[in-house]
Every structure is written in structure tokens, then in C-alpha cells.
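Q&A log
Question type: sequence-to-structure
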Amino acid sequence: MQTLIRGGTVVDVDGAGRADVLIEDERIAGVGNVFEISEADVLDATGALVIPGAIDPHTHFDLQVGAVRSADDFETGTTAAGCGGTTCVIDFAGAGREPPDEALRVWHGKAAGRAAVDYGFHLTCTSVPDDPAEVGALFQWMASEGVASVKLYMAYPDRLMVVDDTLSHAFAAGASTGVRVCVHAEDGEEIERLAADAADRGDTGPSAITRVRPSSVEASAVTRATHLAREAGGSVYVVHLSSAAGLEAVRTAQGEGTEVIAETCPQYLFLTAERLDGPPDDAAAFVCAPPLRADADRDALWAGLADGTIEVAGTDHCPFTNADRAHGTLADQEHWRTFREIPGGLPGVETLVSLLYQGVRHGKLSVERWVDAISGAPARLFGLDHVKGSLRAGLDADVVVFDPEAHRRLHARSLHMRTDHSPYEVIEVVGWPAFVFSRGRLVAKDGEPTDIDRGWGRFVPRRARYD
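Response status: OK
Response body:
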């Protein structure tokens, strides 16, 4: 089977220009202007941008959070991803307390035969061996399984937080094995102190999260993690950076020579903490960690994304229905009592590509930087650039024909994520994928599923950084 995408503006790591893209079966056969193939299906992309499919490196599908579960599983989540132009996701396997091999087995079981686009896994860990040889062997085993990244938490001391020695061991092993170490950077002990103070004064509604998790706890954790990484001779990937203070800590560490990579998310680029000030049950829909910040933080993050200090845009997709949010995470109650019992996380896997394109429309990002943040950089940083992240001959035909003038209101009812609310209800985006190909298969047209096939998506083994 051959498909010729003709007449569009191809945007890739090397720039933007008029070119045709030839797809043959599941691969890109060529990019250029000299294709004359009579038997190919021809798609007229005049006026459109032709880009590599997005890679969302931060999703939480089918994740149990206390008494409730994230709303999207691998079937609905990857279907929604495809409709929005994301053709590969990397999900976090495990809750950190089970053995790594068990976590991978369970997550393979969740995804196999259900995913509509391709996927990979990170491993969530709450401990690593103290012996350098043992942690090195663990990371080498992970890489042999195609899982070339691990996530550790500096927050949630009751269930996830690791101590500094664990971080140091992980950074050292990451340096020797090429496994990327990702960190949730918030100072868990300081958060607990602030939470106790908030409880004492009766400050327990959704807006309290901004006072319990201020930007200072993110900045201090980034500083601590980057110092530990530098001392261990390793690097650190900071997930969901949310604040100007955190960004400044990243810049400082980079200036000191530390390899620190930062990711931010659309919620921190479009939403602010004002959404937490409404009626409590309405405000609960905007609870996430780190929390939403101020306009100044939003502006700083856009600037950091534009200049490359922040390399990646992921989503931290972890949605819940209104009913599950209202219930809360504790099984023995009918309604949450404090913000700490509200399951945190927002939907985003379907809206990533278009929301980030608004940065292009408003002059905050170049079109090339947009594509790199959602596709090229995740592919390079997470060991996928041998198969995805660019429009090059021989790579997977994950191709998006993006209509820069299409209008779409981001109502929950017009999207395919399994949620009954959208944090972006009031936003009308301009620019949406007209056609989305996953390994040569047309899976979405004008934001609606077409030939999506449960089980088409496959696990993609990722390479360690030094392979």
C-alpha cells in the first residue's frame, strides 16, 4: 500500500519547506518533490503542515489512585491520542511498590491488544539497590526489556518519596547504563509541614494546594536533584515543570554544567490558579500536582519552551470523572473532605498538539520548535529516534497532516478522552489535525476516529541513550 501526501509544508528537525511525503506500508519511503507513482493513493495537503506524529512521554492510563482509577485505559486513551495527532505514548508502569518485573508484566497486560497507537513504558521505582553493581544490573535489565527510563519521586513521603542516597545511586547507574532518570521534583517534607499548617487553620479546599505546594518547593527540589546528579556524574529529567522559580533552578543548573532536561505540560501553559478559587466541587476538577500557578509562571514557561531551556511538552494525562473526583481517594467515604483526598490530574493526551500550536499562532514558538517539543525531542531523549520523531525515509509512517485554520472548541463532548469535563472548555483552538497516520494506517480524520483498530498499537522497545 502506498500513500502520497502531496503539496503540504513539511515541518521537521531540519526546518520547514514544501515537500511531498511517500508512505509505503508502515514506513516512510521518501520525502521530496519528485514522486510520480500512479498506483498510490494521493492526499492533497495544500495549505496544511505535514509533521511527524507527536510523542507524549508522560501519561497515566488505567492507574489506580486509592479508591478510584484514571478514566482512560489504553484503548480509550490511545484512541483519543490518535484523534489529536499523538501517535506514540510512554506510560508510567507500576505504582513503585511492586517488583519491576511484575510492574512491566501488569502494564503489558493492560496495553497488549488494546492500544490504537504505539506505546512504551517508563518504570516507577521507590527504591533501588544500594550496591552500585546491583543497581547497574537492574538498569541494564530494564534497558534489555526496551524500558530505558525510570521515574523517582521527591514528594509523597507516605508512599513514593525516595531519599537522596537513592537518587544518587540512580543517577550514577543512569550515567553508566544510558537509562534516563526522571524525577518528580517537589520537596515532600516541606509539603508535609505546610499541609499540617494548612490543616490547623482549616485551609482545606482545592485552592489550598497552591499554598501547600508553592513554587519554592519545586525550585528547591530541582536544585537538590541537579546537585545530586552532577555529583554522581549523571543527568536528570524533570517532569511537569510548573513555575518560573523551577525554571530558574533549571537554568542555574544548566549554567553550572549539569545535564538537566525539563518537560512542561499544557495545563501550566494555559491555566492558572484562579481556576481553584471557585465552588469547591468545580475547583476540584483543576487539582493537579504540581498545582496551577500564576500568569507570570505561565509566561516564563512559554519563554523557556521557546528558547529550549524546556525541551519537551508532555501532558501528565491522568483524568478522572466528576463522580470519581467528588468521591475522592478514600474508600470509606462518599465525598472528599480536604484537597489531599481529591484525585489529582488533568486530561490532555488528545489536545497536546493543537494547544501547543497556539504558541505558534501567537508568536511564542517557531513552527520548528513546536514540532521538536512534541515529537523530535521526546524521540531523541527517550530512545525512539531510530523509529519515530521525524519524517525520514525508513522511519515509522507516523504522519500528521495539520490544518492550521481548523477551529475546534475543546468541550468534553467534542473530544474522545473518557472524561465528562474538560479543563479547556472555554478555549477554541485554531489548528487541528486533518489526517493522522499511525505506521501508515489512517487512524483519524478531522479529529474523529477512522480506521482505528484496537490492538494496532504495539509496544516499541526504546534504546538506552548510549546504544
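Response note: The longest strand covers residues 399-409.
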